[in-house]
């Protein structure tokens, strides 16, 4: 798939694999994509918004309750802007919230607001990934038409 000219929203959740997201943003941009980043509060424990702003070239969206961003319905606008939403890393928690249709933070709200494809990239401990609840949630989101990419094996940290 060519990424040239594609508009991608990268939704970053709070797992240790979040430290790899600047490299992911760089690689997407190298392939011609325009990337904007939204992140959960937990993601900020692993990577700073400033780091992701530096590699994406755009301010990072990190709050559903930001009055400046939400004056223009920022979560709706990001969802409409995107040609593709990628959730990477997608923690078991984020996967569960998306499967349940929750909209309690910016990233999960974008997933509900976008008419574009959503790709979920699971990143967690093997036992958490194999857990019946996680597998059920992945089945639910796949049945709804969301894409599930991976996981790959290897070092997260």
From TrEMBL:
One of its GO terms (cellular component) is phosphopantothenoylcysteine decarboxylase complex. GO terms for biological process: coenzyme A biosynthetic process. Residues 6-141 form the Flavoprotein domain. Its EC number is 4.1.1.36, 6.3.2.5. One of its GO terms (molecular function) is FMN binding. Keywords: Ligase, Lyase. PANTHER family: HOMO-OLIGOMERIC FLAVIN CONTAINING CYS DECARBOXYLASE FAMILY, PHOSPHOPANTOTHENOYLCYSTEINE DECARBOXYLASE. This is Bifunctional phosphopantothenoylcysteine decarboxylase/phosphopantothenate synthase. The lineage of its organism: Bacteria, Pseudomonadati, Pseudomonadota, Gammaproteobacteria, Enterobacterales.
């Amino acid at each position: 798939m060519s990424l040239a000219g594609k508009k991608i929203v990268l939704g970053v959740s709070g797992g240790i694999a979040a430290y790899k997201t600047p490299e992911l943003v760089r690689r997407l941009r190298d392939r011609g994509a325009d990337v904007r980043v939204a992140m959960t509060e937990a993601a900020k424990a692993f990577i700073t918004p400033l780091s992701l702003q530096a590699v994406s070239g755009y301010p990072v969206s990190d709050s559903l309750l930001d009055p400046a961003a939400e004056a223009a319905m920022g979560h709706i606008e990001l969802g409409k802007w995107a040609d593709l939403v990628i959730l990477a890393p997608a923690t078991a928690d984020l996967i569960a919230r998306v499967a349940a249709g929750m909209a309690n933070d910016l990233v999960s709200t974008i997933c509900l607001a976008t008419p574009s494809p959503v790709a979920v990239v699971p990143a967690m401990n093997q036992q958490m990934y194999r857990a019946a609840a996680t597998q059920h949630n992945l089945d639910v989101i796949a049945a709804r038409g969301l894409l599930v990419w991976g996981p790959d094996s290897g070092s997260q940290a």
